[in-house]
Amino acid sequence: PVIQNTTVNTLKDYNNTIDSNVFYKLKQLINGIQNQNLVSINNYTLYEDDKYISGVTIEGWKIHFSFDYTIEKQIEKMSIILKNKSKVGKIIDYIDLRFGDKVYYK
């Protein structure tokens, strides 16, 4: 998938490489989502000095993850929502997993 970094402020920042910790978490996130096989992400966008990342699915809705919490737990929460999609409604605008134990969806 394509990963867009919105934290780059100047042209010289484009020469910088991504932080190894952020890269590891990105890899964890992408692999974890692919292993769940519940949703396909077209692209990701990094925000706020690599604090969180949003993905846009093939269906066009968004999913937001935080790097302040474990990726595994966020993927687990996402999976619960997606497996119970019939209960929450078949059409999802977004799932927001950035707030620890709280999950927001619409």
Question: How would you portray this structure in words?
Answer:
It is a single chain. The chain has 106 residues and is of the alpha/beta class. Helices cover 32% and strands 30% of the residues. It has helices at 20-36, 71-83, 85-88, and strands spanning 2-5, 41-47, 52-57, 62-66, 94-99, 102-105. Helix 1 (20-36) packs parallel to helix 2 (71-83). The protein is globular, with a radius of gyration of 14 Å.
Strand order of the largest sheet: 1-2-3-4-5-6
Shape: globular
Q: Can you give the helix content as a percent range? A: 25-40%
Major sheet details: 6 strands, mixed
What structural class do the secondary elements suggest? alpha/beta
Cα distance spanning the termini: 24 Å
Features:
alpha/beta, 3 helices, globular
Outline the secondary-structure elements.
Layout: E1 2-5, H1 20-36, E2 41-47, E3 52-57, E4 62-66, H2 71-83, H3 85-88, E5 94-99, E6 102-105
Parallel strand pairs: 1-2, 4-5
Antiparallel strand pairs: 2-3, 3-4, 5-6
Please summarize what this structure is.
By secondary structure, this protein is α/β, with parallel strands linked by helices. It is 32% helix and 30% strand.
